[in-house]
Structure prediction request, 400 residues.
Amino acid sequence: MNDSSLHPHDRLLLPQEKLKSPIWTMGISGIVLLLISFMGFGVNRSEFYHAWLFSFLFYFGLCAGSFFWVLLHYVTNAGWDTLLRRQVENVASLFPLVSLFSLPIFFDIFSSHLLYEWTRPEIQKLKDYLEKSLYLNVPFFCLRAFIYFCFFGFVSWFFRKLSCVQDEDANPYHSLRLKRLAYPIAVVFGFLFTFFAIDWVMSLDYRWSSTVWAFYLFTGAAGASLSFWILILIMLRQRGYLQQLNEEHYHLLGKLLFAFTALWAYLAFSQYMLIWYGNIPEETYFFIRRNYDGWYYVSLLLVGGRFALPFLFLLPQSTKKNKNFLGFVALWVLFMQAVELYWIVMPMEFSRNFAVGWIELIILVGMGLVFLAGYLKKATEAYLYPIHDPRLQESIEVYN
Prediction:
């Protein structure tokens, strides 16, 4: 590696011993909160399972979106984000941890049948279910879930592993190998995420369908993971790490966030407009359920908060280069991603009116603490950026 790739005062590693205590504290606190949330199982089982699914989808989306950014780096042969890439590799490698969050959902699928209506014995006798029973049945659902979790967990681990190996042996062949593998894996990734979105979210109402549903969910997950990525980079930079990170990197990240904000709005509006115009009862019921009572105001919040505000704020070049402003917008988009997933999942439980209970908050925070503890542990195990990547210097000197 060229010596100019290193900043004279750069720190390459997080202090493992210093962070050991905070990692354990966050992890244990998160587990305790999740255990406390099981009290909600005795209060309202249906609300508990829906709240658990909502939180699981939020953190699964952060991992899926992060791995998308890793794949995009190699597929597009990008150089500007080489300095930043290790952090999304760390987040994506949390797939095995997030997969464990799904266990209570399987318990419901096999026992209570409160989440997915199509798992109930009385529903399985209806004609509209029988038409889809070849795909929507518990054994096949579990098999597909096993494939999703194994694939996402293995490939995210493998990409990070080779990236870290390159830190030790400085062999540029690792980058070339990952680039070659990224093309077919990106295709499989898109294919499996599509069916994951159908299985775990769209089948909450098995009568309903949307042809752009997977792309719509993916765009939200990509934008949220990009926001999480931005927040991580800003916090590391403020604490004296990643000294080469500059406003050009923020500008490029801001442009990506702006683009995915617009793409999300395009897909959301297209889905809404086509379904409403088609006026097919099985399809329009999804929006009818969310356009009345308190959910109507959440729908309006998504229009203004998930699209209009980030779009307008990120429009000027100056705001995208300002790390404080960009961090605020990223935090807001991350919050709106949680609101959107809540708007998707929770009306199946609170069909009469909008509500946020203590169960939902405790599960979301509990999973979040475990998730952050997992991220910090990953971050302390490797260099903060790929120090021997052949395109590192290009990333440091980026200008756009």
The chain has a mean pLDDT of 93. The chain is about 70% helix and 0% strand.
